[in-house]
Amino acid sequence: MRLQVKQINRFFLLATAPFIGVLFCLIFIHPSVKLNMNSSSYLPSGSIHDTSKDIVLQLNDAEEIVNSTLSTIRHTSELYQKTLDTTNNIVKITISQALQPEYIYNKRITSKLGTPYQKVTSERITLELFKVNPGVYQGHAMKVKLKDPKAMKMSLGSDVIGGSETTAAAVQRYGAIAGINAGGFADGKGKRYPLSTTIMNGQYLTGFESSFKDLFFVGLDKSGKLIGGKFHNKEDLDYLNPSFGATFVPVLLHNGQKVPIPVQWQTSPTRAPRTVIGNYKDDQLLVIVIDGYNESGGSGATLLELQDRLLQLGVRDAYNLDGGGSSSLIFNGRVINKPSDGSLRPVPTNFLFFK
Predict the structure, then answer these.
(1) Which of 67, 183, 249, 304 might form a disulfide with 214, Cβ 3.0–4.6 angstroms?
(2) pTM for this structure?
(3) Is 172's pLDDT higher than 60?
(4) Helices (H) and strands (E) in the chain, counts
(5) What digits encode the pLDDT tens for the residues 248-262?
């Protein structure tokens, strides 16, 4: 837009320059008349009259030229203003039309989720909360539009390896607007350690570990896009420029296609509280947290059910995060889900969202 205004300003200056030059010439370089009134030389009265008449005629001509020049300047100024207004309108229409596909796509994916019952929006992020209730299980979905890559981070329990804290405690400690539990963990000597490859602030916490069995890595790159999958070489993960991420099992969707779920994870347990994270093709994120009474397999959702649901919602890539008693969703200062342990479980990693 600045470039267009500069071009119009140059056009205006070029258009008016000749007229301004004429005006200056008439004002500062007009003919002068000198009268020599000494005793030996004088102009006849008739000659003085003729000279005065010529001067009057020249002044009249000059006045007409000035008026014509001013009129032309006014006309050029009006034309310039009209051109500027037209250009501004074109820019507004172009911006509006450019946003139409994004608006239409967002409306389409949102309609599949229903009507949000809570929403938080700022210059950095938009969060919308929906209920998930297909009849077999119940839970909540949170759609996230990151406008600033730094509006999502991962926290480490008490900021030490082996530490743990509830998602609510992490949200409060960091001043986040929302949060979910992240990767899996292993207990040892009273401490909780993140599983396998874990990255914080672009740095590997305990080094890179090649993916084995059904483990995967999931997180965000430094531009705020979801990245994930199995990585057998550190260079392959580094190439994606990860900002942070954690590890768990298994991958659910890849490029809009189901990834076969290992038999072990179809039945261990069959049903359970779940936390999953995925992305749409426009890089918006979708988090689903499913409630369940316990981890015995009698309540909650199966991973196969979540695969189908995610596909119906138009999600491209999706990853199963730690579930069971670890599943937690904090939104706007409240615990949204129903933790199966009866209270939130301390975990080593949490994904946090900032207003």
Answers:
(1) 249
(2) 0.75
(3) yes
(4) 6, 20
(5) 999 999 999 999 999
